[in-house]
Design a protein that fits this description.
Blueprint: H1 2-46, H2 52-102
Helix pairs in contact: 1-2
Length: 103
C-alpha cells in the first residue's frame, strides 16, 4: 500500500509538471507568433519596393522567418509526442501494477 502512495505521488507530480510545462510552452509559442507578426509588419512598412536591393533583402528575410516558424512548429510537435509517450508509459505502468495485484 505504501508503494501505491509513492507511485500515485510520482504520477501526480509528473502530470502537474507536464501541465505546467505545456502552459509555459503555449505562452512562449504565442509570444513567438506575436513577434513574427510584428516583425513582418515592420519589414513590410520599411521596405522600399522600388529598390531591388530592398526586395532581395525582404525575400531573404521571409525565407529565414518561414524556416524559423517551421522549426518552432516542429518543436511543438516533438514536445507533444514526448508528452504522449510519458502518458502512455504511466498508463502501462498502472495496468501492469493492476494485473500484479489481481494475481
Amino acid at each position: 500500500m505504501n508503494e501505491d502512495k509513492k507511485l500515485n505521488k510520482i504520477r501526480s507530480e509528473t502530470l502537474n509538471s507536464m501541465a505546467r510545462n505545456e502552459s509555459y510552452f503555449k505562452l512562449l509559442l504565442g509570444l513567438c507568433g506575436v513577434a513574427e507578426v510584428v516583425g513582418v509588419v515592420a519589414v513590410l512598412w520599411l521596405v522600399d519596393w522600388s529598390n531591388s536591393t530592398h526586395c532581395l533583402i525582404f525575400a531573404a528575410t521571409m525565407l529565414v522567418w518561414v524556416n524559423l516558424a517551421l522549426w518552432v512548429l516542429a518543436l511543438a510537435i516533438r514536445n507533444r509526442v514526448g508528452e504522449q509517450r510519458i502518458l502512455r508509459a504511466i498508463e502501462v505502468l498502472v495496468e501492469s501494477i493492476d494485473e500484479e495485484e489481481k494475481t
